[in-house]
Amino acid sequence: MTNVSGSPADWYFEDFAEGQAFRTLSRTITEADIVTFAGWSWDTNPVHTDAVDAAGGRFAAPIAHGMLGLSVAMGLASRLGIFERCSIALLGVDDWRFEQPVHIGDTVTCTVTILSVRATNDGRAGILDREFVLTNQHGAVVQRGRIGLMVSRRPA
Asked: Which residues does the UniProt record annotate as the domain MaoC-like (predicted)?
């Protein structure tokens, strides 16, 4: 696991290497998180918002929206401070998998691994192919996928 050192402004394309892995802080998912997400996304599926209905369902209780987990993973990665100032553009979310449900009270952590680094065709920026793995407090993988990012090169 790579330790993050220096201020966020210190990280540029040249500081990343294939195989680097960064572990984020943890965050506990609350009922308020799910209710708020349902409100602004308009996704009020009973599996997320109806405790009585969900109690009789597959998961026996309401679960977090899959996209809430993805959003939390992105937020946790931003808290690392290494992508904030060098980020130019998010390039896409690929092969994202929802492997296990995230329950109210689960505490999740994200590991971000740099799968590859390459310069853009014009050489003015860099591309990071990153794997995100979101795990719960038991170490179980709940979500995973790849998120590409274009980043700044170190100024001359």
From this structure: 18-119
DSSP assignments along 120-151, one per residue:
-TTSSEEEEEEEEEEE-TTS-EEEEEEEEEEE
The model's pLDDT over 87-106, given as tens digits with 9 standing for 90+, comes to 999 999 999 999 999 999 99
* CA gap 6, 69 in Å, rounded: 28
Query: 50 by DSSP, 3-state: which?
Result: coil
Asked if 143 and 98 touch (Cβ cutoff 8 Å), the reply is: yes
Cβ-contact 68, 102 below 8 angstroms: yes
29 contacts 105 by C-beta, under 8 angstroms:
yes
Spatial separation of the C-alpha atoms in residues 87 and 71, rounded to whole Å: 17
Residue ranges covered by each domain of the chain: 9-152
